[in-house]
Design brief:
Elements: E1 3-9, H1 18-29, E2 33-39, H2 46-56, E3 61-65, H3 67-74, E4 84-88, H4 94-98, H5 105-114, E5 117-125, E6 128-130, E7 133-137, H6 138-145, H7 148-154, H8 156-167, E8 173-178, E9 183-188, E10 190-194, E11 217-222, H9 227-243, E12 252-257, E13 259-265, E14 269-272, E15 275-279, E16 282-294
Parallel strand pairs: 1-2, 1-3, 3-4
Antiparallel strand pairs: 5-6, 5-16, 7-10, 7-14, 8-9, 8-13, 10-11, 11-12, 13-16, 14-15
Helix pairs in contact: 1-5, 2-3, 6-8, 7-8
The structure holds adenosine-5'-triphosphate.
Length: 319
């Protein structure tokens, strides 16, 4: 066996059985990769375990948990060139979706076994690393409302329900956005700065596509006048994200830059990579090619048919 890796595993993430999930990971990876396994605890989080692994000089770091675990673990890996493996077991699994990494345990392990890596951009928001996006305004409210208990009960639905609740209390704020070459002032309900974003993060989808290795960040401003136009704007973003076309509404704007300084009045809560971070003002800088991640060899084929699992299923093949 020539490969080795440190596996950081959060037993409290997601809604599955952690013992079974760890056994599954070990049974797929251990025939080819010698694993040094560390479990996170309430006291010892993934960031501490990853820092120690980097100091030991490990060959690769694999993190398995929800987006919170992945985000904490990769902090220590930025700019080290140590390949980072992602095995998602959370509720939203936005990292996997944004980086086109499979989100089932079996396929994520196969991705790591294949050994192909790719450099992606990361960013720093103030001092905090960011791989996906920073949400100002609207998104912070949805993350706060999707609490642990709700996530356990409803999974992904908790985020959607929180979004609908948040939409009911649409708040506007004055925002000033400074890039390397402009200063923009406007009124907004949501400002999102994305390095990478899954299509489900609709508020980030102003541009036609968010490219995670172009050395740039994409900022989307959503500024609806009424609750009805907020719903229409969200739906428009959802549609344009699905078809890969840029937005066309007057109440949505977007721009690209390597750096953004953002201030708001009044202060707004900020969510980074799905976790509450603090409040504005923030400064976000892109770190081009700051993280090496294991990625699939070929884009996933989208199956055209799935029948297995249906109750009392019979399939008759016709001549
Ligand atoms: N052994 C443990 N027992 C209880 N909590 C833990 C343990 N290990 C880590 N944690 C906590 O788990 C949280 C991170 O969870 P994570 O985001 O990975 O999963 P999730 O909440 O299920 O996923 P998602 O963010 O997608 O909803 C951190 O707050 C961390 O302190």
């Amino acid at each position: 066996m020539s490969r080795s890796a440190c596996l950081i595993f959060n037993p409290a993430a997601g809604q599955g059985d952690p013992e079974l999930e760890l056994d599954q990971i070990r049974s797929i990876l251990e025939p080819e990769i010698e694993l040094d396994i560390y479990l996170t605890t309430e006291e010892i989080d993934a960031d501490e375990l990853a820092r120690a692994a980097v100091e030991r000089g490990v060959e690769a770091i694999i993190a398995s948990g929800g987006d919170g675990t992945l985000s904490a673990a990769l902090e220590a890996v930025i700019n080290t060139d140590i390949p980072f493996g992602i095995i998602s077991r959370g509720t939203a699994n936005a990292f996997a979706a944004a980086l086109s990494i499979p989100d089932t345990i079996a396929a994520a392990c196969q991705t790591i076994l294949q050994g192909k890596t790719r450099l992606i951009d990361v960013a720093y928001c103030n001092e905090r690393p960011m791989v996906l996006l920073a949400g100002i305004g609207f998104e912070a409210g949805t993350v706060e409302k999707a609490d642990r208990e709700a996530k356990n009960r409803f999974g992904m639905m908790a985020y959607i329900m929180a979004g609908i609740q948040e939409l009911g209390s649409l708040q506007k704020f004055a925002v000033e956005i400074e890039t390397e070459d402009k200063i923009i002032q406007t009124i907004a309900s949501a400002v999102t700065v994305a390095n990478a974003a899954p299509p489900t993060c609709v508020l980030a989808q102003g541009p036609a596509g968010i490219i995670f290795d172009d050395g740039l960040l994409d900022l989307t401003i959503v500024a609806p006048e009424t609750k009805a136009s907020a719903i229409a704007a969200t739906f428009h973003l959802f549609q344009t994200a699905s078809t890969g076309t840029p937005v066309e509404r007057d109440d949505i704007g977007y721009l690209r830059s390597k750096q953004f300084k953002i201030t708001t009045d009044p202060l707004q809560k900020v969510v980074i990579d799905g976790e509450i971070f603090g409040t504005t003002p923030i400064e976000i800088n892109c770190i081009p090619a700051g993280l090496r991640v294991f990625v699939p060899n070929v884009p996933e084929d989208i199956p055209t048919e799935k029948l297995e699992g249906l109750p009392n299923l019979t399939v008759e093949i016709k001549n």
